């Protein structure tokens, strides 16, 4: 999503002011969160650093995790792309070579050896990368509720990991094919596969909601939220995607509404 | 590896007696483990079931985990392929449709919704699938040493997860490209990438060995062992792969020797 351009129509959003994003997000709480967290302070060396890119759904997972745990982190914006001043926002969507990233963002590449967001660096020296592994690290490093994996329940913990991966590997991958393919017939196939995976996911959700596991949030909610945001708005904008109206998608809609109301999730909406 | 045929030369191994496998493995402990675990007993309904295929490196991870924890499990062999009696062993390497698997192996598909090995079913009703998630589940379900993720160490636990994924996503993927590509130039590129990823991995290993983290095994060792076995023998057989002789590959070689001596690992060598 972040690194390639969906062909056709127009360029992907270059800022959160872009018309691509829903109007209600222009003054979104995410922008306020960023402004507040970017403000340097003398105590910043003592804070956990979040290396992120504002548009990246993977990085947003780590961001939600820190917000949920109430961590006093500092926000470090990384532009992983070559800059071309001719383009709006300067974003070329061409990944900078790792050597260039290393020169531009030495702290970041020390925390993320392949130069990909998200990553976190703790003042104690800990460095962790890969979105779901950052979420689990934050859960264990800040060992208090809300817990992203239910403590002492090996089965539920396994299912949380399985369904978090399912979001990336099944739902997101099919959505990405729908977005990138130019052939209408292949788009239709990808859309069908995407809907089927969404239904499989919905059937694994608790029936007493609102969250995936029920009354408590978990890593699965954190894993899906940034992507569902893009399924709705990027999908609607580029592909006229309208979610079906059936019990599975109604369950997902009530899940989306519940998550959107949660401050830690809302604080990351840009 | 298991599901497609490397083009050229000959078919992949159809049994552990195949010449593809190293002669020392013909009488391997893995075969004895299987024979012992397959023997039905009146108490089998009370045992954890391991759904596996003897040739599958992903399934072997779950198998090692159960052996390491000393679990009294029963071994359930799944042939995920269409059978053609004309072919040696009957293996076509064509995945059966999920409906057929459901009819043939109802218990298995209940434990693994996409019909992929490995999966485990606990007599208490727990069902878990996906290799690394089974390993973590087994670690938490049998809450005693050896621990596959070091207890109470969020950073080390994160790194164990990160480097376990690295095995699958970087080392194994490049090896697979080397194996499947027919163009010698592309094979050379894939081999270079594979060696580079192996060196990156080796540099992340503890220097005081023998295991990835040092004196104690972890999920990383379990994640890599089945693949390293295939890098050595399948790679050697099909592609004349010889591991370089440098500090990184010597570290990996000493790791391989230490793991091969460990009973739980050795018990899965087929």
From TrEMBL, chains A, B:
InterPro entries the UniProt entry points to: Glutathione-S-Trfase_C-like, Glutathione-S-Trfase_C_sf, Glutathione_S-Trfase, Glutathione_S-Trfase_N, GST_omega, GST_Omega/HSP26, Thioredoxin-like_sf
The keyword Glycosyltransferase is assigned to this record: no
GO cellular component: cytoplasm
CDD domains assigned: GST_N_family
Region (Disordered): 1-22
Pfam families in the record: GST_C_2, GST_N_2
Domain named GST C-terminal: residues: 153-270
The entry's keywords: Oxidoreductase
Start and end residues of each GST N-terminal domain: 46-146
Molecular function per GO: glutathione dehydrogenase (ascorbate) activity; glutathione transferase activity
Protein name in the entry: GSTU20 protein
Organism: Symbiodinium necroappetens
GN (gene name): GSTU20
